[in-house]
């Protein structure tokens, strides 16, 4: 079966050395599904593809086979629906069930969200309760990317703390979220660490990642170290 024009164009951008390297970063994606397109090249191509007549049809082709097809899909959503939040959210809801790895998930950082934060926040609450690994991760990463500055509400910390999952990529997202919260919203986030409201692994990982920040003072880092759960990684 011949490849559609957009997928064929992705193959023309492949880098075999990058493919081998990147495959190690997304071990849950079979190697045969990875073309090997560097992210900057894919984003540049997406800008061209969004103007092609085949773009809309491509967005209807679920499920995609290749990893880069999913990445292109995510990029096209922001380019084709840059101002219609209702249409964009409908499309992202259709797409999220097919996201099967952390890299595709984390590439989704739609600029349109910035202008529609209250509506997006309501959607986030649903994503966090979906029970689907990368939908939940997307919800957490959205809170991290758009709601830890002026739009922050203390209740958001509890939403993430309430997520219960044994999935590595969900727990890592929660740790990442709390590590950034300790940088940007320290007074609100600290009690969650002091009171050990996260599971031990996520708790320690959040502290570990916070310690990597240059925006946290040496004195605060020493205090955070003292809050680690002993005997847990």
Q: Can you walk me through this structure?
A:
There is one protein chain. This protein has helices at residues 5-11, 16-23, 39-49, 55-58, 67-80, 85-95, 102-107, 117-128, 133-146, 155-161, 168-184, 186-194, 200-211, 218-226. The longest helix is centred in the last third of the chain and has 17 residues, at 168-184. The chain starts with a helix and ends in a 7-residue tail after the last helix. Helix 3 (39-49) packs across helix 5, helix 9 runs parallel beside helix 11 and helix 11 (168-184) crosses helix 13. The chain has 233 residues and is mainly alpha-helical.
List keywords for this structure.
14 helices, globular, mainly alpha, 233 residues, 61% helix
Would you summarize the structure shown here?
The protein is mostly helical. Helices cover 61% and strands 0% of the residues.
